[in-house]
Structure formats: structure tokens, C-alpha cells
Design a protein that fits this description.
Oligomer: heterodimer
Shape of chain B: globular
Largest sheet of chain A: 7 strands, mixed
Structural class of chain B: alpha/beta
Number of strands of chain B: 17
CATH topology of the largest domain in chain B: Rossmann fold
CATH architecture of the largest domain in chain B: 3-Layer(aba) Sandwich
Number of domains of chain A: 2
CATH class of the largest domain in chain B: Alpha Beta
Number of helices of chain A: 12
Largest sheet of chain B: 6 strands, antiparallel, barrel
Largest interface: A-B, 22 and 24 residues
Number of strands of chain A: 14
Strand order of the largest sheet of chain A: 2-8-7-6-5-3-4
Order of helices and strands of chain A: EHHEHEHEHEHEHEEHEEHEEEHHEH
Helix content of chain A: 40-55%
Distance between the termini of chain B: 61 Å
Structural class of chain A: alpha/beta
Number of domains of chain B: 3
CATH class of the largest domain in chain A: Alpha Beta
Helix content of chain B: 10-25%
Strand content of chain A: 5-15%
CATH topology of the largest domain in chain A: Aspartate Aminotransferase, domain 2
Order of helices and strands of chain B: EHEHHEHHEEEHEHHEEEEEEEEEE
Radius of gyration of chain B: 21 Å
Chain lengths: 387, 365
């Protein structure tokens, strides 16, 4: 069996989520908007799931809007905010966001919005003071990732909430990588909007949520029926919703145990790799990051070769973001953190999750150095593109 | 353990069938599509079906899905630019006519890709080339023409030596194109009826001169005059990179008789034009000569058939290689226009003995 170490791309389905889907499929399957009792049963299941997701992030169920996933939640946050505050033409974010933030910002820049992208420090931290300095009365929304998808750095967003509130800007936190992995409390953070992605903590792809503190402050972007309190038209994805509800409940109850266990597995992997690979470098901070994520620069090799070689040996990791044609571009996150293009091309992201075992990590800790030695020997970087 | 083979897949029918055949023969097939060109391919390129576009990669991916083997896109753009495209541009600027497919095979498919293959623990590299490799009873490898003469691509492969041949598989060498297409249809491959790629993959519109101009410093270009054999100026031109020996069209000379490019003198910028019969040559000098079996290089004078352009017929000649890897080749009877920069490949019957790059023609007596 391959060793799956790419949970930040998507986690395997939790058995509790699979069971919830099975139970739903066995039911009549009414539309939650319908009047009949089949519809009522579906509606009840939908609302239970909503409460489970709300509980995971310290929110009220009425503040949870189900979406098709993190990308839709981010788009709803950004476009919903600028539509609702049409006078304001400025957005403050960072250089190291996910493409589902960066691409909407690029589109809005084309439409004439002013976009401020704060640079991170060398560990991927965004200085809250720099965000506050960019904030003004023109700012519609401040959008920051809570935990970076590639290096795992956790941002200190709590200090932003009162100033955002005073200046009338919405604070959006993309918590796709954090929710279900570390304790996240939307109310305590004081944000207005928070993105949740079910796929990252054991629900299937295709279900997510946006926490909306005050629904008067954003406008919908998908129009149709009055679903999701008018915030998101379209019959809710009930199989996804029951799965994300079950995954949320499981993740919440298991969180302390899981984050300790996964954190210690990741630390043990990192230490073994440090011992076996001279010159190996961790990208991102040692503390103040997701316990499951380790982003590493492997000396003297192309990350692309390592990634493929590891896959063929049954260790599944990732690198940067894949472009349309399938070739991998150097990570904008690592570039933003000041790493060279060459270093970014030599880097891989290893992300653990709920189902990884100590045996798997032991195996990975011996396979990865062996593959590194083979790749470094067969295809040394010095030879690449030169003769 | 099954031997692992890295198959270079372009998304065309040939490499698709090559991969599928190896999969059926129970190799551990790993498919790779190489991202090579840095300029986006144009809609024209798509129609003509050159390789390396996004759609072609998707076609290759579908073949891998259908035949159930892993497939990856690998990024060799920097290597391709440094080892193939830069050479293409500098050769044209120097008044020669390069053959980038030969360079790509030598530098990318059978060198750079081999490094990747070893990194991936592969034992072999395979491509959809039409050529055959056979191992003799003495253990030496022989490179042979394809069974399908009309598709034979052995010309592009002369740089392969014993090391390369020992780790290379050409699954299509014994097949005709018709058989390959039939096989693709039988396997249900989406690429079965794709058109042939024609142009050089990184110059999809076929306009080499403009490509060279885009990729070079204008100060490097050598404009000058078109002159006749006696040095009389016939016209001016915008750069020697716009010409190739043997070319007739585009000389911009009004003349009663048909004129051809006979010689390009990059230093002075002179392009010498002549009549068709002025193009004939007695032979050529080649450099960077490599032999498939290196012991052949020491064999003194060899009787061979030499092919001086891909689409030309091989003609009888005698040759001798010196210690600096240069060869003097004398045609048995006077030969056609010799184009510096092109590959000349030495055959003996079906077998490729080696080849080199044409430096200059030997004047007819």
C-alpha cells in the first residue's frame, strides 16, 4: 500500500464520514427544501451537520453556509464582500495565499481594484502590523490564510479584528488547512468570514463552508433558490454535508490526541531525515505551524524528480502547485519567503494526517533518504541544463 | 522484478503505441511527457499536430489511463533551451542549417532523459522512433533502419553509441505506420488517428527566420549581399540565417535562370548563388563524428552509403575518420548539394554505422 503523505491536498475519507454517507443513501433522499416528510428528514440531517461544523469552529449554526468547498468559500468571501460594500475598492491580503484567493484578487485587479499583497518573513509569517498599516477606509476586506497550505505557518490574525472592525473592513480568514487539525475558534478570532474545507479533514471533496458572522455584510454570488439563508443558491450537497458533519465531530473529539500523535510522527520523520540527508532544510518555522506539515528543500536534486521517484516507491507527497499542462512551477509561497527559484524547485511538501501510522512514517523515513541518494547520484543538479 | 522502462510520450500515435506494446509485454512502464518548448504553441500548431502542447499531454495521459501505467509530465524546458534551441539559433546565425531533432535525441531523449530514468530506477528508455536495435552474438549492439522504409527515422539516431543502445527500446522498429495505427485502434487509443507532426516542435509556424530573430541579439545577425560565383553583387539580404544551401525560393534576385544558394559565408555576410549544376559536390567534411560501434572509427577507409539529409537517399561513398572525430567523405560519383549544419549519416545496407555534422562541401573536380 502506498504511504499517503499529502493530506494538505486532500485527506482520505474518515470512516465516520463514509458511514454517514451510507446512512443517507439508505434513506429516501428528499430535497431539504421540500415540504414532505422525506424533505423534512433531509433538512434535519442537514441542520445536524451544520451544527457539527459550527461546533468545530466555535460558531453558531446559523453562521454556517455550506458551499462546494474551500475555493467557493473563498470566492464567496471576496466577491460577496466587495459586492456588499461597493464603495470600497481595496483589498489587503498576502503573497502566500492559496490560488483560490490569488486568482480572485488578480481578477479584481484587472477590474480596477487596488490589491495589497503583504510579503511574509523568511518563515512565512505575515506581520499583523504591516497588514494594519495597509488598512484604510477604502479597504473592503482583509483576507489572510490561517495556516499556509505549503509550509504550514500559522498566522496571528486575532490582533487584526478590532482595527478591521473600526475601519469597516471585513476580516476573512481562510482556515481551510487549519480547521479539523488545530483548535480554531471563529468567535474568539473575531473574524467576519472564515473558509472551511471538508476535504482537508476527512470529508470528501466537494463540500465546504463559509462562516459568516453577520450575513448582512456580504452579498451572494450564486443566484437561484433561497437556500442557505439566501447566501448560496442551489440544493445543498446533502451527502457532502452529512460527511463533513461527521468528519467535523470526529475531528473535534480526536483533535488533542490526533494533533499530538501526528505532530510527534512528523517530528520523528523530520529528525530521521535530518540525520540521513546532509544539508536538508526545513521551510517554515519549527513552532507556530501546523503539526502535520513539513516542507523540505532537498540538496542537489530536482523536487520534480524526487516527487516522481517517491511516487514510484509508494510515498505520495507534493510540490508547489501543478500548472495546467501538469508540469510543476516553483512554489510562490517559497519564493515569497525569499527562497531562490533553484531552492523552490528542490522542495517538497510532506503533509501527514489522521490515518498515518508509525509504521508508515518509519518506512517513509527509510525510503525518502534512499530515493534522495539515488536521484542526487543519477541526476545531480549541477548537470541539469548545463554541460 | 519486471524491468522498468521510461517511455517518452508526445501524445502522438507512435509513442502511444510504443508504450502500450511495452505494457502488454509486461514491462513496468512509466510514461513521461517532456515539456520542452517555452513559447506557447499557436492554434496553427494545434491543427498541424506538433507535439508538446497541453492537448497532446492530455492525449498521452489518456493512453496511460487506458493502459493502466503511471504517467508524469516532466519539465525539461531549461535543458531544451540550453542544449537544443540555443544551438539551433547559433547555427543559423553562423550560416548553417541545423537539425534540431538530431540534437534533441542526442541531448534530451538519450542523455538528459536517461539521467531522469536512472533517478526513477528505470532500466530502459523507450521512444516511438521507427528504427531497430539488434544485439549481435558478440554482444555488440547494432542500429538498423526501420522495417517501414517510408517512416525510417534511423537518420536522427546516429549519435547513439553502445551505451545508449544497450538501454534503449524502439518497440515500433519492425512495424509499418499502418500497423501502428491499426494497433492503436485495436487498443482503443484516442491517438489512433492523430495527424503526423510535421514542423519542428518549437517553431510550429515553420518560420525559422523569425524565430531566430526573436531569440537573438540583432547585433549577432549577419546581413549582407547575395553574390554570384565571381563575387558580383546581385542583391542585398537581411541576414545569412534566412538561407540554407540548396534553397531556391526567396533569394530576391531577378534572373533569367533559376538560382540556388550554393554557399553561405557568415563572416562576410555573403550568400553565393549559383545554377543547379553548381551545387554538385564531390563529398564533404563532417565533424563531431560518432560511430555506433567505436571500433569502426579506427578501421581506416570505409565503404559506406551516406545520407546527407533526412529525405535524401543514401549514396555510395568512401570515408575516413581522424583522431579529432572529423571525417572526409568522398561520394563515389558527384553528389547533391551539401548543407553545412545538417547531419550526415553513414549506412551499410540496413545498418547505421555512425554519422556527424556537415562542416563543408568538397568541391567537385
Amino acid at each position: 500500500m502506498p504511504i499517503y503523505l499529502d493530506h494538505n491536498a486532500g485527506a482520505p475519507l474518515r470512516p465516520e464520514a463514509a458511514a454517514a454517507i451510507s446512512r443517507l443513501i439508505a434513506d429516501a433522499g428528499g430535497n431539504p427544501s421540500s415540504v414532505h416528510r422525506a424533505g423534512q428528514r433531509s433538512r434535519r440531517m442537514l441542520e445536524i451537520s451544520r451544527a457539527q461544523v459550527a461546533a468545530l469552529i466555535g460558531a453558531d449554526p446559523r453562521q454556517i453556509v455550506f458551499t462546494s468547498g474551500g475555493t467557493e468559500s473563498n470566492n464567496l468571501a471576496i466577491f460577496g464582500a466587495i459586492t456588499a460594500s461597493s464603495r470600497r475598492r481595496k483589498i489587503v491580503s498576502s503573497q502566500i495565499e492559496h490560488s483560490s484567493i490569488l486568482a480572485p484578487l488578480a481578477e479584481l485587479e484587472r477590474r480596477g481594484f487596488e490589491i495589497v499583497r503583504i510579503a511574509p518573513d523568511a518563515d512565512g509569517r505575515i506581520d499583523p502590523a504591516r497588514v494594519l498599516a495597509a488598512l484604510d477606509g477604502e479597504t473592503a476586506i482583509v483576507s489572510l490564510g490561517l495556516a499556509n497550505s505549503e509550509v504550514g505557518t500559522i498566522q496571528d490574525v486575532a490582533p487584526l479584528s478590532s482595527t478591521c472592525g473600526n475601519s469597516g473592513a471585513l476580516l476573512h480568514v481562510d482556515a481551510a488547512q487549519a480547521v479539523g487539525r488545530i483548535p480554531v475558534d471563529a468567535t474568539a478570532l473575531g473574524c467576519d468570514l472564515m473558509t472551511v474545507s471538508g476535504y482537508k479533514f476527512g470529508a470528501p471533496a466537494g463540500i465546504g463552508a463559509l462562516y459568516v458572522r453577520d450575513s448582512a455584510r456580504i452579498a451572494p454570488v450564486i443566484f437561484g433558490g433561497p437556500h442557505e439563508n439566501g447566501m448560496r443558491a442551489g440544493t445543498p450537497n446533502l451527502p457532502g454535508a452529512v460527511a463533513v458533519g461527521a468528519a467535523a465531530e470526529t475531528a473535534m473529539h480526536a483533535m488533542d490526541e490526533e494533533s499530538d500523535r501526528i505532530g510527534s510522527l512528523a517530528r520523528s520523520l523530520l529528525n530521521k531525515l535530518y540525520d540521513a540527508i546532509p544539508g536538508l532544510r526545513l521551510n517554515g518555522p519549527l513552532v507556530g505551524k501546523l503539526p502535520n506539515t513539513i516542507n523540505l528543500t532537498f540538496p542537489g536534486v530536482l523536487g520534480e524528480s524526487m516527487l516522481i521517484a517517491l511516487d514510484l516507491e509508494g510515498v505520495e507527497v507534493s510540490m508547489g502547485s501543478a500548472c495546467a499542462a501538469g508540469a510543476v512551477e516553483p512554489s510562490h509561497v517559497l519564493r515569497g519567503m525569499g527562497r531562490s527559484i533553484a531552492d523552490a524547485r528542490s522542495s517538497l511538501r510532506i503533509s501527514l494526517g489522521w490515518n498515518n501510522t508509525a509504521d508508515e512514517i518509519d518506512a517513509a523515513a527509510s525510503i525518502i533518504p534512499a530515493v534522495w541518494r539515488r536521484v542526487a547520484d543519477a541526476e545531480p543538479l549541477a548537470e541539469v541544463s548545463a554541460r | 522484478m519486471k524491468p522498468r522502462v521510461l517511455v517518452a510520450m508526445s501524445g502522438g500515435v507512435d509513442s502511444s503505441v510504443a508504450a502500450a506494446i511495452l505494457r502488454e509485454q509486461d514491462y513496468d512502464v512509466v510514461g513521461v511527457a517532456m515539456r520542452l518548448a517555452t513559447e506557447p504553441t499557436t492554434p496553427v500548431a494545434k491543427r498541424r499536430g506538433t507535439c508538446c502542447s497541453h492537448d497532446d499531454f492530455e492525449d498521452a495521459r489518456r493512453v496511460a489511463e487506458r493502459m493502466d501505467f503511471p504517467f508524469y509530465v516532466i519539465d525539461l524546458r531549461a535543458d531544451f533551451a540550453a542544449r537544443v534551441v540555443d544551438n539551433f539559433v547559433s547555427e543559423y546565425i553562423a550560416g548553417r542549417t541545423p537539425n534540431p531533432c538530431v540534437m534533441c535525441n542526442r541531448e534530451i531523449k538519450f542523455d538528459r532523459l536517461w539521467s531522469r530514468a536512472r533517478a526513477l530506477n528505470a532500466d530502459y528508455v523507450a521512444t516511438g522512433h521507427y528504427a531497430r536495435i539488434e544485439q549481435g552474438v558478440d554482444g555488440r549492439f547494432h542500429l538498423l533502419r526501420a522495417a517501414d522504409e517510408t517512416k525510417d527515422q534511423s537518420y536522427f539516431l546516429f549519435t547513439l553509441g553502445q551505451d545508449e543502445l544497450s538501454r534503449t527500446i524502439f518497440p515500433l522498429g519492425a512495424m509499418t505506420k499502418t500497423e501502428v495505427r491499426a494497433r492503436a485502434r485495436a487498443l482503443g487509443l484516442a491517438t489512433a488517428d492523430k495527424p503526423e507532426s510535421q514542423e519542428i516542435c518549437f517553431v510550429p509556424d515553420g518560420d525559422y527566420a523569425s524565430f531566430v530573430e526573436r531569440r537573438s541579439d540583432p547585433a549577432q545577425l549577419r546581413p549582407g549581399s547575395i553574390v554570384d560565383r565571381d563575387g558580383t553583387r546581385l542583391a542585398d539580404h537581411a541576414g545569412v540565417h534566412r538561407f540554407t544551401v540548396g534553397q531556391r525560393r526567396g533569394l530576391g534576385v531577378a534572373s533569367g535562370e533559376r538560382l540556388y544558394v550554393r554557399e553561405i559565408r557568415a563572416e562576410s555576410g555573403e550568400v553565393v548563388a549559383g545554377r543547379r549544376e553548381d551545387l554538385d559536390s564531390a563529398g564533404l567534411v563532417a565533424n563531431r563524428v560518432s560511430m555506433v560501434d567505436d571500433s569502426m572509427a579506427l578501421a581506416g577507409e570505409l565503404s559506406v552509403e551516406v545520407k546527407i539529409r533526412y529525405r535524401h537517399r543514401a549514396i555510395p561513398a568512401t570515408m575516413r575518420v581522424d583522431s579529432a572525430r572529423r571525417a572526409e567523405i568522398r561520394f563515389t560519383s558527384s553528389g547533391p548539394a551539401v548543407t553545412p549544419g545538417q547531419a550526415c549519416v553513414f549506412y551499410r545496407g540496413e545498418e547505421v554505422l555512425g554519422g556527424g555534422f556537415i562542416e563543408r562541401a568538397l568541391e567537385a573536380d
